[in-house]
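Objective 1b: paired records.
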Amino acid sequence: MKKSLLNLLGPGILFAGAAIGVSHLVQSTRAGADFGFGLLWALLLVHIFKYPFFQFGPRYAAATGETLLDGYKKLGKGVLISYYILNFATMFTIQAAVTIVTASLAANLFGFSHDLVAWSLAIMLVSILFLGLGKYTLLDNLMKYIIAILTVSTIIAVAIALFKTEKGFSFQQIIPSGTAQVTFLIAFLGWMPAPLDISIWHSLWSVEKDKVTFEKIKPKQAIFDFNVGYIGALFLGVCFVMLGALVMYQSGESFSSKGATFASQLINLYTENLGEFSGIFIGAAAFTTMFSTTITTLDASPRAMEKSSSLLFSKKIKLNYWFWIILLTIGTYIILRYFLSDMVFLVRIATILSFLTAPFYAILNYILITGNHTPKKHRPEIGLRVLSLVGIVFLIGFSIWFLLSL
């Protein structure tokens, strides 16, 4: 029974691996450090309102045996072309953001070089080797252990921080005001728990798991797998906000925009509570988590571009998985080599872009899962449909609020 449950968990854990990265290690800790517990409302709301659109990825894949990209084409070739252009325009910035955070942690952990661009290139090359040798199966298996290690270490750190803190703290919620605060809020929401296009990645991983295991996963099993990963991402998001609030809020210290310094501050969040001896273990856990995010994004974006290319161009133009991986690596390196000013700026740009494009994916996923292309018995019930419509209004409303505040 244990083995079957472990085998059942797959794409949902990959979702968690892709989600628990910059949004948690960077954005959530910064939210706690700058606002205390004041943005917990935003963390909870965005998880509630994004939930249906993420869930529709594995739901559609399990119900039809197809990816969301197949569904987008059925909605009209123009829809798939729009996704193709949008994904191409954003994937380099997203990859650069997760890779530079990983490189910052690597420089802090290993110490023999602080050249973050060199670290970034090395990490991407190792990731390519990893994907070439292990492919989906190794990615699937390793992610379960990575998430477990980070979860245990984070829970321990939060528990000790709660026990050791002598300062009072307030749960009064804060509505950000002013351009700087609203910009941070939108960036925080953009990748919390993840960009909405990860729903497409999830559907791709679901179809790939069916191929690897030679067993078609049932819709209820797919949704259970997703829920495990999603609830885990929410729980760890709250934990990282708590760490930032308990250790850094009103301490007079703020997170640096420089990658190596930020990584050191992040590790100190743990070592101040667990003791200096834990630094190497926590550093390794944080680095491994970000490394897993780097790998999953490096796998998923090319996988999505290969699939959409094949749907759009058929056999006329063959742009396979490895073509896109190499192109993504080169493009990411160029961004980091020539356009990187500081880590926080790059992360902010990537997360804001993700939030502003979220309504596009939310609307498409809703139309697809409630329409004729999804078998009637697998379409969402009325409660989830209502939540979806409210979620679309939420995403559009916050995007307009942000644009008006500029």
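Objective 1b, second protein:
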Amino acid sequence: MSDEHESERPGRERPSNAADRRGRRASGGSGAEGTPSKGRATPSRAAAAATKEKKVSPIGRVVRFLREVVAELRKVIWPNRSQMVKYTIAVLIFVSFMVALVFLLDSAFAEGVAFLFGRD
């Protein structure tokens, strides 16, 4: 059955192992579809440490932090006025409900404690 499928798709051979199925070649040569492999070794710790930056001053770190904050704030999708009104109303309704729930539970527990231990 697999011979039939291979004959239907000329030029495409079936992968022989898991590495080929994932798009890699086991031989270490060029990758799948003719893409070249990286062809370089992983750098050693000493080489990686030599290319690291020097320690940055505290002021430099604060400036970099603030630049990153501004960059992240530019990515935020800010709500428009109608969305903001809807969100505010939803929050106020939820907070009002929670306040009423806590008030009722507190009153019920206070009455229960007063009933159990007697009133002064």
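The CA atoms of residues 109 and 115 lie 10 Å apart. The mean pLDDT is 79.
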